[in-house]
């Protein structure tokens, strides 16, 4: 059974790029006779707002997209994600980190195109977990994790047009490009987006992850985490991004492209499909 999801963060209104992603995932699920789920990635408690959550549901319904089952929210699961993270502590793969990097939070909460991770120089790597102070982040000791996974088949199947094929996650490239990622945010005990999302994809039985190409670079770290936690690896489909007239990827701050604005101006769902280059059913 083909199971996919649309997983927005309710930090702003949906724009044309989200509409493209949601319609594509919905249509692919329906064409395969599968399931289309809705997940709110709302662990950024400062930026996520109930009014955006409601607006997202309203926009999707207006677009004619129906999701299967109840909406899954991540915020109520924060304690559960943290409890699961402890399994890595048991294997000696985590360490506390007090390095101040103002961009860590931004990188975790809102992945930016082209800057997937800031490869961490390893300053705190020798610290034992017992030295963890309340304000510390938790990092994965990637070299140690890759040793544990030496015999694992770290690979994933990609069906998106830009990178279609089988991808192997090589240890050398992982160390160079991913490094010791933050798995739990500094001072907040909130697990990183790519970890919560890997847990949820497994818990929700997602077989196909359909999402924007800006998240392609996060896939190797998700594959590593899936193997560390004994989770299955779904098929990935990273789709093209909808860009503005200057060729820049649309972001939540681009309210000018908000779906609600087009709706208010009288556009129809068929117009939106045409604007993002998708066929009308
Ligand atoms: N919540 C992420 C976003 O809004 C999507 C994560 C995913 O689809 O894996 O960009």
What features would you describe in this structure?
By secondary structure, the chain is an alpha/beta fold. The chain is 35% helix and 15% strand. The chain has 10 helices and 10 strands. Helix 7 crosses helix 8. The site of glutamic acid has 8 residues, from strand 9.
Rg result: 19 Å
Uncertain regions spanning at least 5 consecutive residues: none
Instruction: Please tally the β strands and state the result.
Output: 10
Largest sheet: 3 strands, parallel
Spell out which ligands are present.
glutamic acid
Helix tally equals 10
Mean pLDDT: 90
| Helical content class | 25-40%
Strand order of the largest sheet: 1-2-3
Give the distance, in angstroms, between the N- and C-terminal Cα atoms: 22 Å
Shape field: globular
What is the structural class?
alpha/beta
The succession of helices and strands, N to C, reads EHEHEHEHEHEEHEHEHEHH
């Amino acid at each position: 059974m083909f199971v996919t999801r649309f997983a927005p963060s309710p930090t702003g209104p949906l724009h044309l790029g989200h509409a493209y992603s949601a319609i594509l995932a919905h249509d692919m699920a329906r064409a395969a006779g599968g399931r289309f789920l809705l997940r709110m990635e709302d662990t950024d408690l400062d930026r996520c707002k109930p009014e955006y959550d409601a607006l997202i549901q309203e926009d999707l319904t207006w677009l004619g997209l129906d999701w299967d089952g109840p909406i899954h929210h991540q915020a109520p699961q924060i304690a559960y994600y943290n409890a699961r993270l402890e399994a890595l502590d048991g294997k000696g793969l985590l360490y506390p980190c007090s390095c101040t990097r103002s961009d860590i939070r931004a990188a975790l909460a809102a992945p930016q195109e082209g800057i997937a991770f800031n490869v961490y120089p390893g300053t705190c790597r020798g610290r034992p977990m017992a030295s963890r102070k309340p304000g510390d982040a938790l990092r994965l000791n990637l070299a140690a994790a890759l040793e544990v996974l030496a015999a694992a088949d770290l690979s994933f199947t990609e069906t998106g047009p830009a990178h279609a094929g089988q991808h192997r996650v090589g240890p050398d490239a992982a160390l160079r490009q991913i490094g010791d990622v933050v798995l739990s945010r500094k001072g907040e005990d909130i697990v990183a987006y790519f970890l919560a999302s890997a847990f949820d994809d497994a818990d929700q039985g997602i077989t196909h992850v359909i999402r924007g190409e800006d998240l392609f670079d996060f896939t190797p770290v998700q594959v590593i985490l899936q193997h560390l936690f004994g989770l299955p690896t779904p098929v990935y489909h990273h789709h093209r991004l909808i860009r503005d007239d200057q060729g820049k990827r649309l972001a939540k701050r681009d309210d000018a492209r908000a779906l609600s604005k087009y709706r208010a101006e009288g556009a129809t769902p068929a117009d939106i499909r045409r604007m993002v280059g998708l066929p009308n059913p």
